[in-house]
Specification:
This protein has 422 residues and is mostly helical. 74% of the residues lie in helices and 1% in strands. A hairpin with a 2-residue loop joins β1 (170-171) and β2 (174-175).
Amino acid sequence: MKTLAVIIFLLTYILLIALPNYRAYIALLSALIFVFTGILPMNKVFSTVDWNVILMIAGTMGIVSLFIESKMPALLADIILEKMPNVKWAIISLSLFAGIISAFVDNVATVLMVAPVALDIAKKLKISPVNSIIAIAVASNLQGAATLVGDTTSILLGGFANLNFLDFFFFKGKPGLFWVVQAGALASTFVLMYLFRGEKQPINKTERTKVHDYFPSFLLILMIVLLIVASFLPNMPSTINGIICVALFIVGIVKDIFTRKNTTVALNAVKEIDYFTILLLTGLFIVIGGITEAGVINDISKLFVKLSKDNLFVIYTLIVWASVLFSAFIDNIPYVATMLPVTASIASLLNIDPYILYFGLLTGATLGGNMTPIGASANIAALGILRKDGYEVSAKQFMKIGVPFTLAAVTVGYVMIWLIWA
């Protein structure tokens, strides 16, 4: 059964990379195979799907649709265009802007908010938006590990290790993950500057777009505030972030219907939700649940201990770089959820403080997803936005930016965590 699970899993990811236009159907078909072969019991299918992520994606896509309709992204694009001398600095500024937002909001939500700005800039300059949106996605993934509310993996770590919001900034009198991520962001920004060094097209100033409805912008700000507040409240349901996003979207729809006296914008907002992406992620969650149930991930985890021969540096190195490798192809949410108890067990066996392994795991798993287009939910969402605008992005095209960006950020984080926490 375990061998069959490995074969199905490998075939699934080969097809996901080879046939990007059919990813959702491939993931769902693979999920059905895992269920019908009995690898994943029927009674565990529902629980393997991270409904918090699914609801958050649906809610934020809806809110962002209203945000776009309000013309606010166009105004933001105009403001950025006014400040930047050329396309290179416009792309870098957008990626840094996305990173700042992503430190406090889920990276998928960040991509859904910032990508429309990049699309608008590209349309104004009549250039492809592909590279700028890829840069936004990878920057969002990077900063997702900076705070407790930045990414689902951070939320998983906070719950498992009992860390609060401020622990990500300073923990036990030492710099926390926030500062490690900022150092990685600095290194990766230099990578972006090199990659986009040839994008020197001048940006001409244009008349600023006028925004007539600020309520969607208010909804976005309120979403950020509520997501942060929810991180401090005890005994919240596991889907609280998703509930917040969907509830605010519903508020936006209701308000729009009553003020405009028609349902056109509301219906368009519902239609703008990327159901292809949602189906893809749902299928991937079930696939990962299947290989977890089969014991494949657990066996890989045990291999860490065997290979390390009780050497902390070797174990730490294995956890960081193996996490980078696996998260490039496996969604990092179920991976982190599986590996957290493994790292705790390793720390207990070695009688060491587990936090160096926790932080190494989060750094490798969160940033590792930047290497491939299917390694992180934000990447999938970004490619979904591009697909809707008529741009199909190959794995090679994505990795041309994702791989050097990831290697720069992870290497800096890997060294810093060891120096601070070893």
